[in-house]
Amino acid sequence: MIQRFLLAILTLTVICSCEDIEDNTPALQGEFNNGFFQAIDARAIRNENGSFLIQGVTQTETLTIFINNGGANTYPLGENRPNYASFENASGNLYITNPEGGGSVEVTRFDTSAGVISGTFKFRAVLEGIDTLSVQNGVFFEVPFNREQDIDNGQTQVAGTFVARVDGQPYNPFTITASSTLNSVVVTGSTTSRSIRIEVPLDAELGTYSLPTSGFLASYMDNTLNEQAIEGNITIFENNPTTKKLKGTFAFRTDSKLIEQGQFSVTYF
């Protein structure tokens, strides 16, 4: 009798857990230390080299999972592996698995026809010299990748791709916008607490431009800073006003931040 009762409780728990995920698809959630993280929005980006960036946000936090392939497999985290997981809290502190943490990501469904990816994860991430974050029972379910751009107040939430490194740590913004004015194109990559902004002339020719240069601007902003580039460069590889495609790289230094290995490829309005 006791065994039947326990079996019934276990079955009910599994059914309820699945229903919770299905009702909130796409879903990304997990147990963080003694709390619970549940994204209010989740998406994935499939990069040209086949790697995947899976992200979920709350109003103040960003969870990022990067794996070097999207196929159904288990991807170890930590040390110097190409795969990593990171968590940015409301204060802009970044916990990351590489190199001192560890864990794994298991992709259980990779459906190119439906454009969705599902799986599980667990990891230990480190805020260097300060704190450690333990994540268990993580799930990403039916997260869409390379979907049509989401429209919000006339701007795209995913205008293309945008990556960089800030003080040596990966910077993977959840919101990427690109818009034009009479004279320039402004590209912004933002997390819940940080933002990098790149501005170039609307008619910028292909080439490399030193910062600061008239018409070319770069800045970094977080909860306490709003700093302009004092040196650096922006390189334009593609600028097509007809198709409104802009592609380039950037690297710059502000008074207190070093931004390196920046890349963007966007379609602007």
UniProtKB/TrEMBL annotation:
InterPro entries recorded: DUF6252
Pfam family, one: DUF6252
Name of the protein in its database record: DUF6252 family protein
Originating organism: Jejudonia soesokkakensis
